[in-house]
Amino acid sequence: MNSAKKLFLTVIVFICFFLLAAPQVLAANDRFDANKMGDMSDFDPGNPIIPTGDTIKIAVVCSFSGPAALVGDIYFASVQSVAHDINKRGGILVDGKKKLVQVIKANHESKVPITKKVCERMVLQEKVHVLWGTNGSHLMKVINQVAKKYKTIAICTAALSDELYDATNFNRYSFMTSFSCDQIGRAAAYYYGNIRKKEKKFYILCQDYLFGHSMANGFKKGLKEYYPEAVIVGEDYHKLFATDYAPYISKIKASGAEAVYTGDWLPDSANLLKQSRQTGMKLPFINTFLDEPNMLHEVGVEGTKGLVHIAQFGAAPPAFKTPEQLKYYLAWRYQFDKWKKPFNSKLFMHGTGNMGSYRMQTYWLLSVIERAGSTDPEKIIKVWEGDTYEDVNGTVYKMRACDHKVAHDLFVEIYVEPEKQKDNYNIPPYYWYKGCSEPGPVYVIPAEKVLPLMDPKLERCK
């Protein structure tokens, strides 16, 4: 019996077993329901089916070119998968009419002036209803400014700096559906101080701009709160898209650090890990973006073992507890084998991890629009403030009304060898990938331990 047939039979048995379980209790205003998914058999991010005309328009504002072009592929595949699903269901009833979802690429080239220009073009010429972004908090700041000026909804799915929603920068048209730097840092500190209770010496290495410093501050704050006996033995910041990490690696080695905390994202995160392992440094990296599987395969099983990944989308093992979760996962996984470059790489195989989060954030956006019954920003704001939404894993997201930040459980994933991934990836072949370490144990950090930072100077929150 070949592997495909074995997987099929396992899935059938899995579904039959869980159909006997009690139905899930609805604990939120709305929830993702995989049983309502449309036909995903022709979903292909490289050959997307994009409607035109009177549609709900989402501009994915990010880097589709330059050194971070891969990020654009990740974002587009994530958002387009949701749009494909909703469109196959027949669209969403808004303003008295069923409308399909149209995803438009808006390339900001990782440049501030271009971000402003392209966002204004999206709003004024393309007439988009939502600005979806982005990689770079300094660029998300520009997106939010345009959203405020033209009274257009913006959704912050991947820029993590808390300052974006402080008293100075908050505007009611933008919603932060991603976790934030402060939450990430405090989750990492909570894990080391209350769960692992071993390493005490930490080194911080982040990118030298708003996001990198915010990431470092979150971890330092978290250590004071949850692990006061820990010490920071070194702290450094490097320019974006650096190529030589040798000076930093040397300082880390000399510091006596037992673990390294980094907020680096691609391509910086990949270069940092590769060069550290090439020099023989085996310290664990506490990270958010050291999860790109092609890069992890280059480093290999041993070099990626022990990575500590702070995730916003996840679940305590096993990964697939219900038929709904399995249906959602396989709707993506079964299509992957048909895709061509760049979407046929290992990065896009599972559609989980950060992509899983981007997808769920987009489902939440469209749920809000559907419940608002309109693309009118004022009606969307009214629904989204204080809203709750449950994702496919059962995680409930709560949108704080006063500052538009989201609270929910976070997850600490420990990377282990393929043979130790079975308890997590509980269907054939019982590992995420064969050539690198991937999540095995996963620890849930309760939402109340990592509530998003609130600026006391923001009048709405007093």
Description:
With 462 residues, this protein is α/β, with parallel strands linked by helices. The protein has two domains: 3-179 and 317-409 and 452-461, Rossmann fold (3-Layer(aba) Sandwich); 182-311 and 411-445, Rossmann fold, CATH 3.40.50. 37% of the residues lie in helices and 18% in strands. It has twelve helices and 18 strands. The chain has helices at residues 3-18, 70-88, 112-124, 137-150, 181-196, 210-226, 246-255, 268-278, 293-304, 323-336, 353-372, 377-384, and strands spanning 30-31, 56-62, 92-94, 97-99, 101-107, 130-133, 153-156, 174-176, 201-207, 231-238, 259-261, 285-287, 308-311, 388-390, 396-399, 406-407, 410-416, 438-445. The protein has a seven-stranded mixed β-sheet with strand order 10-9-11-12-13-17-18, sandwiched between helices. A five-stranded parallel β-sheet has the order 5-2-6-7-8, sandwiched between helices. Strands 1-14-15-16 form a four-stranded mixed β-sheet, with no helix packed on it. α2 (70-88) crosses α11 (353-372), α8 runs parallel beside α9 (293-304) and α11 (353-372) crosses α12 (377-384). The longest helix is centred in the last third of the chain and has 20 residues, at 353-372. It is globular. The model is unreliable at 1-26 (pLDDT under 50).
- Name of the CATH superfamily of the largest domain: Response regulator
Number of domains: 2
Largest sheet: 7 strands, mixed
Spans of at least 5 consecutive residues with low confidence? 1-26
What is the overall silhouette? globular
Instruction: State the helix count.
Output: 12
- Helix share bin: 25-40%
As for the CATH topology of the largest domain, it is Rossmann fold
Strand percentage: 15-25%
Strand order of the largest sheet: 10-9-11-12-13-17-18
CA-CA gap between termini = 64 Å
Overall pLDDT, averaged?
94
User: If you compute it from the alpha carbons, what radius of gyration comes out, rounded to the nearest whole angstrom?
Assistant: 21 Å
CATH architecture of the largest domain: 3-Layer(aba) Sandwich
The count of strands amounts to 18
User: Helices and strands: which structural class?
Assistant: alpha/beta
Order of helices and strands: HEEHEEEHEHEEHEHEHEHEHEHHHEEEEE
CATH class of the largest domain: Alpha Beta
